[in-house]
Specification:
Layout (H helix, E strand, L loop, with lengths): L25 E6 L3 H12 L4 E7 L2 H10 L4 E4 L2 E2 L2 E2 H11 L4 E6 L4 H9 L4 E4 L7 H9 L4 E2 L1 H12 L20 H11 L4 H8 L3 H15 L4 H10 L4
Parallel strand pairs: 1-2, 1-3, 3-6, 6-7, 7-8
Antiparallel strand pairs: 4-5
Helix pairs in contact: 2-3, 7-8, 7-9, 7-10, 8-9, 9-10
Length: 241
């Protein structure tokens, strides 16, 4: 029941240039040995027409099979699986599908596991049973150049950074390998640094979306990174931007 003179909030619009449209949904693989939790996540993903749940598994063995038999955009994986560790699947996903996005879904929230997941190339880390998070929204965030992390966990990691001696974050070591990006690759990477997704970059630079993605793949290969955030960080530290 509404209140007189008060309009209900408008449904949020999903811009046409963002990845994840009803006619081209984001393809997801889900690996979790907790059957109840897997069902909860699956129901949320299936209720969003912008997402297509390709397949599910409950073990490292079955997860490996899915990685080799399905095309996908996002892997959602638990770290504790009955026959091994989700870290194994993260590594294999990176080898087989270098440009996929990976979201960890776990009850483990210690900083070491979180940081290791990101070091292996994950772009999201969600805690099971946490409030103020959406599994579907996390999928859409990572495929559009963002990151997804449970708010409570993000707050704790920020606090950890602020507690470094002298109040300064740990120094970033600049990789020593020499890399030269083309002028166009730098233009694309500058757009990425501003938070633009592929379709926005296409419109800004007057090139096709396929060309944008080709440039991004070349940038990843040259910089030897696995995500847009890593590419921007490396290029900034080496003077490429």
């Amino acid at each position: 029941m509404g209140y007189p003179g008060v309009c209900p909030p408008a449904e949020p619009l999903w811009p046409h240039f963002l990845t994840g449209q009803e006619d081209a949904p984001v393809r997801v693989l889900l690996v979790d040995d907790d059957e109840f939790m897997r069902r909860v996540i699956a129901q949320e993903l299936l209720s969003d027409m912008r997402i297509q749940l390709e397949a599910q598994a409950g073990s490292v063995r079955d997860g490996r099979r899915l990685l080799t038999t399905h095309e996908f955009d996002v892997l959602m994986v638990d770290l504790r699986l009955g026959d091994g560790s989700g870290f194994e699947l993260i590594r294999e996903a990176r080898k087989l599908h270098r440009y996929c996005e990976i979201i960890v879904i776990s009850a483990i929230e210690d900083d070491a596991h979180v940081m290791h997941a990101f070091e292996l190339g994950a772009t999201g880390y969600l805690l099971k049973h946490a409030w103020l998070q959406s599994f579907a929204q996390a999928v859409l965030q990572v495929v559009n150049g963002g990151a997804a992390i449970t708010p409570k966990l993000a707050r704790r990691l920020l606090t950890r950074m602020n507690l470094q001696p002298g109040g300064e974050p740990p120094p970033v070591e600049t990789p020593q390998r020499e890399v030269t990006l083309t002028t166009r690759e730098r233009e694309v990477l500058r757009c990425v640094a501003r938070g633009c997704v592929s379709k926005e970059i296409s419109m800004r630079l007057g090139i096709s979306g396929q060309t944008v993605n080709a440039h991004i793949k070349n940038i990843y290969k040259k910089l030897q990174v696995h995500s847009r955030a890593q590419a921007v960080s490396f290029a900034t530290n080496t003077g490429q931007l």
